[in-house]
């Protein structure tokens, strides 16, 4: 029954052993499992780096050489920061025993190429930072096997070509950011780019390169723009291309598309491009307006709605005065019925560019009884939330407790009852106000889109 050693004593002993066995290099700072040797004027790695470290910061030094196996014995290492050093290349086997690396920062060094062997075996690597080097060449197999990759930063280099074909759904399922901006990409294999997983396309940054203006290039960006990808939308002005590759004739091609009016590449893309899904909740008898905001921006659009109860609805075929199709595509149903519930699909057609985009709205028309239940439920929920907030306020606010010890009982009960009553009275007196709880759901129609593509 009696266990001789006190566990905490054991822990202290272990810590003592730990720290005597592994000393922190004098130029570094060791805190827990993090070792920082940044800005220490190092030209090579310190001897005997502590094996227990999970994070090692060597940034802002002058390290120009890493010997094979230099991180041997640091098997727990997950974060290695080596930004702002003088590294030009990596030896085979540099990371041979640190396969647990998840975050590797080699930005602002002097790399000229990224060779196939550099990161091999780092299958847990999630973030790879290589921006601001002098990289001109990225070898085809560089990213193969790095199946945990999420974000890769290659911007501010001199890359002229990139092995897009090596990235596929099954090889890099989590890759959502590939930054190749501010490089020297001219001709890309656009077919390979279009074949990239959607997640990668969405997070592919290509602005400020030396792209040559042509229709296949334009069509790719045009579609990304249409889908509203941040990678394109946030850098519209920085997307430039050069006419015939002539560096004196650059075009901000997402802003001035005159040059591309002759491109016929859009024509084959006739199927609906964008599908936006949202849910709308209304009560029977209420007026409902469904807008048809799609990614098409032309002012000259024609709209068609497909409704579950009334079939196709166009401007021309409306024959009852219960529904209306407004010029901006908004469908109005004056008094909704339960059997108006279902999926509404609007197609906006841009005839000039032969494009159409669709928008889907899932409508649920609630019976008045369902609505009553809903009101009761939301009110109850509201009360519960209020009560919880009051309790949290009363019992968890630290500065109150010095003063309130004596009169706590009194204060808490009076405060809670007044607050409670006032909220309840408010909900009671403004019976229509319950809509406020449902409103956000209805407004979702116009604001909170999720983009499905
Ligand atoms: C490092 O890896 C090599 C080969 O992968 C292995 O032979 C060696 O024992 C490892 N060294 C340590 C210290 O783990
Ligand atoms: C574009 O790239 C060049 C280097 O290629 C860089 O100096 C410049 O700052 C970049 N501009 C922008 C707006 O990113
Ligand atoms: C578009 O094509 C027409 C005739 O094919 C040509 O005259 C015109 O210059 C072209 N426009 C541009 C901007 O390339
Ligand atoms: C949208 O484009 C397709 C071509 O894929 C066409 O068949 C369809 O009629 C278009 N939709 C509308 C409403 O014009
Ligand atoms: C929907 O219900 C109304 C009565 O509530 C009925 O008049 C109408 O015919 C129904 N419509 C369809 C398509 O079933
Ligand atoms: C369409 O027009 C109606 C009436 O003018 C307006 O209430 C609605 O907000 C407009 N919808 C959009 C998406 O602009
Ligand atoms: C529409 O909403 C209803 C109820 O919220 C749900 O049961 C149904 O699956 C939804 N339909 C689609 C296509 O999302």
TrEMBL record:
The chain crosses the membrane at residues 376-396. Pfam families: Ig_3, LRR_8. InterPro entries: AMIGO (IPR031283), Ig-like_dom (IPR007110), Ig-like_dom_sf (IPR036179), Ig-like_fold (IPR013783), Ig_sub (IPR003599), Ig_sub2 (IPR003598), Leu-rich_rpt (IPR001611), Leu-rich_rpt_typical-subtyp (IPR003591). This is Ig-like domain-containing protein. It is found in: Membrane. It is a single-pass type I membrane protein. GO terms for biological process: brain development; cell adhesion. The keyword ATP-binding does not apply. Coiled coil: none annotated. It comes from Astatotilapia calliptera (Eastern happy). GO terms for cellular component: membrane. The lineage of its organism: Eukaryota, Metazoa, Chordata, Craniata, Vertebrata. Belongs to the immunoglobulin superfamily. AMIGO family.
